[in-house]
Design goal:
about 500 residues; alpha/beta; six-stranded antiparallel sheet; binds flavin-adenine dinucleotide; binds FE2/S2 (inorganic) cluster
Length: about 500
């Protein structure tokens, strides 16, 4: 409840409802003492937890119940219905939970429970865990180690003075000016102090000695470790040096500092050129339109995002942006930058006050390559996310893992996958690991429209569309050899959750 004055949707669950009003396997929204509550019924059990997801407040009653968990319709976080604790990212924080009582055919939500205490079990594990990179994967691994009861030292090393933070927001609401900077850190600094997670921000790790179980930092410091997680992420692909040396600064977007700089350079009524119709390029485009800049997008492909989403959704994405006044120059590349303009390969010159390049990323593999770890367009890991060096694990944008759903070794650049891999690697480090078999998931936001994507399809021989792409209400399936590899949805969040669950079952069956 934003203002504290509106009553949340649904009945007063303190007063109760008839048990027959909520059939087995169903969930509903209600409220208790002014708080929005999700009531769930599973067999002879009833559960009550907070109704707003602890990620971005997604409506959990509209989500999917799977066993004794609920999945959020917006970005697929998963919570334990018994405790309110997050089971799967992107949610990191617990939800409140309440006692539930059933008597005389009435189910009533009772007292709010105290927050769950830290685990009392102690996990054995290595002497210490060192995490290189405090992004999605590194942060998630550190949190999971503590949630699993690991008591040894945990250190995260990262050169970024702001890490760890909500990277996906940097191209969306934060850049559009709709999210204040205090929303961007994943946790306040005291969180890490309380959990005993040391954040060493400043010098980067420059070399790794897997035999001696040591790393060296830029400032010469050496750190030893019991187990190591490499989670160094990716860096933007840069333009040719002669374009970068032009007086018109080329902006890239990976860090909070980058996003601050782009926001600082954006001027209402000014002209921006975005190179690359990638997810990041187009999200930047939408955010600059929100800041009332005129935006031109230049990209070599015939349609935006066609390689990932196919022609139909590619056209839809282009249309959404055109409706917002964006001008596309497709099938074109920049051939020069300078004098307040960007020159295209057909000779056209686009005046520009701001230039942003979103032309892809490359995994940061220098450390792994320098240490002789096995790589192949990514850092190779096994099902438990361990690299070719014992005791060295990898997660996130750098990791190429054996994906049981496609049967291929894949590497993806998705926030939720990086977080889930961080979680899995932490458990593997503690010897509690199971094979990493999560179905990849990502979302992308363009103005008010969100695209959700489950699975992974680098190639397909058929696209099946259910619904109406033009009406922005559809489910698109990418099929290879008769097998559904991936499902994208627009305006159908629940269908996206169902697709994720179906892909999980298809591969485990
Ligand atoms: C602007 C933007 C928007 C995005 N939006 C979405 C989205 O909507 N949905 C989605 O699914 N994905 C999105 N992504 C992708 C997603 O953010 C990444 O897939 C995810 O952050 C990868 O996590 P990671 O932990 O592997 O790497 P990162 O989160 O990049 O973290 C890597 C960290 O390692 C540090 N590091 C690098 N080298 C060293 C070193 N030598 N020593 C120490 N530290 C080092 C870096 O400083 C960095 O902090 C977006 C990415 C960007 C940049
Ligand atoms: S709002 Fe629930 S996962 Fe993002």
């Amino acid at each position: 409840m934003a203002s504290g004055q509106e009553t949340p949707a649904g009945p007063d669950l303190r007063a109760g409802i008839a048990t027959g009003d909520l059939p087995d396997g169903k969930m509903m929204a209600g409220h208790v003492d002014g708080e929005a509550v999700l009531l769930a019924h599973r067999g002879h059990e009833w559960f009550a937890i907070g109704a707003a997801c602890s990620h971005y407040s997604g409506p959990l009653p509209e989500g999917l119940m799977v066993g004794d968990t609920v999945r959020c319709p917006w970005h697929h976080a998963c919570f334990n219905l018994r405790t309110g604790q997050p089971v799967r990212p992107p949610a990191l924080n617990d939800l409140p939970s309440w006692d539930v009582e059933v008597r005389d055919g009435i189910v009533r939500v009772g007292a709010k429970r105290k927050p769950f205490p830290p685990p009392t079990r102690r996990s054995k594990g290595p002497e210490s865990v060192l995490i290189v990179g405090g992004g999605a994967a590194g942060n998630s691994a550190a949190e999971t180690l503590r949630r699993e009861g690991f008591e040894g030292p945990i250190t995260i090393v990262d050169p970024d003075p702001d890490a760890p933070y909500d990277r996906p927001n940097l191209s969306k609401d934060y850049l559009a000016g709709n999210a204040p900077e205090e929303w961007i850190p994943l946790h306040p600094p005291e969180f890490y102090r309380e959990k005993g997670i040391e954040l060493r921000r400043g010098p980067r790790v420059t070399s790794l000695d897997p035999r001696g179980r040591r790393v060296r930092l830029e400032d010469g410091t050496e750190l030893s470790y019991g187990a190591l997680l490499l989670a160094t992420g990716a860096s933007p692909v840069r333009l040719a040096a002669e374009m970068e040396s032009s007086p018109l600064r080329v902006h890239y977007l990976r860090s909070l500092a980058d996003s601050r700089r782009i926001a600082g350079a954006a001027r209402e009524g000014g002209r921006a050129v975005v190179l690359g119709a990638s997810f990041i390029g187009l999200e930047v485009t939408a955010s600059l339109r929100a800041r009332k800049m005129e935006v031109h997008v230049v990209a070599p492909a015939a349609r935006p995002l066609e390689r990932v989403l196919g022609p139909e959704l590619g056209d839809m994405v282009r249309q959404i942006h055109q409706e917002q006044g964006v001008v596309f120059h497709l099938g074109r590349k920049a051939s020069g930058v300078g004098g307040g303009r960007v020159t295209l390969d057909d000779g056209q010159a686009l005046p520009a006050d701001l230039l942003v390049a979103g032309i892809g990323v490359r995994p940061n593999l220098e450390l792994a390559e320098g240490a002789g770890l096995a790589t192949d367009r990514g850092l190779l890991v096994n099902e438990w996310l361990e690299t070719s060096a014992p005791g060295v694990f990898a997660a996130g944008d750098i990791a190429r893992w054996p994906d049981p759903h496609t049967g291929d070794r894949i590497r993806v650049e998705h926030w939720v996958v990086a977080q889930r891999q961080g979680q899995a690697a932490a458990r593997a480090i503690l010897g509690q690991g199971t094979r990493f078999d999560a179905v990849p998931f990502f979302w992308s936001q363009h103005y008010t429209l969100s695209i959700n994507y489950d699975g992974h399809a680098e190639r397909w021989d058929r696209i099946e569309i259910d619904g109406d792409v033009a009406a922005k209400d559809c489910r698109v399936r990418y099929v290879r050899g008769g097998k559904v590899l991936a499902v994208a949805t627009v305006g159908r969040d629940r269908a996206s959750l169902e697709a994720e669950a179906a892909l999980e079952t298809a591969s485990s069956g």
